């Protein structure tokens, strides 16, 4: 494609199509099922530098839970 772009005058928009996952058995998203909710929140805070609020929100999204449930589990309520 790079050679084609060098030889051809590009006019307008270009659409690049990329194939999907060739290995559907390979997990695309991790759920971290081996970690407790509190451990996952801590992991996100440490490894991604998220605030506790953002880590709780992300954990709720990953685990398909309500933010309130994650908040309570994280803070020990």
Give an overview of the whole structure:
The chain has a domain of 45 residues. It contains 4 helices and no strands. Helix 2 packs across helix 4. It is elongated and about 65 Å long.
List keywords for this structure.
single chain; 77 residues; mainly alpha; 4 helices; 51% helix
The share of residues in extended strands comes to under 5%
* Sequence stretches where pLDDT stays below 50 over 5 or more residues: none
State the distance separating the first and last CA atoms.
57 Å
The helix content is: 40-55%
The backbone outline, from C-alpha atoms, is elongated
The tally of beta strands, per DSSP, is: 0
Describe the main β-sheet briefly.
none
Mean pLDDT, all residues: 86
Specify Rg, calculated over alpha carbons.
21 Å
Q: Return the string of H and E elements.
A: HHHH
Structural class: mainly alpha
Number of DSSP helical runs: 4
Question: What is the element layout, followed by pairings?
Answer:
Layout: H1 2-7, H2 37-48, H3 52-63, H4 67-75
Quick description:
The chain is an all-alpha fold and about 80 residues long.
């Amino acid at each position: 494609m790079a050679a084609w772009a060098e030889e051809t005058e590009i006019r307008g928009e270009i659409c690049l199509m990329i194939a999907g996952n060739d290995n559907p058995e390979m997990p695309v998203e991790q759920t971290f099922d081996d970690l407790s909710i509190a451990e996952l929140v801590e992991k996100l805070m440490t490894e991604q530098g998220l605030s506790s609020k953002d880590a709780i929100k992300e954990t709720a999204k990953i685990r398909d839970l309500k933010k309130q449930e994650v908040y309570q589990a994280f803070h020990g309520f």
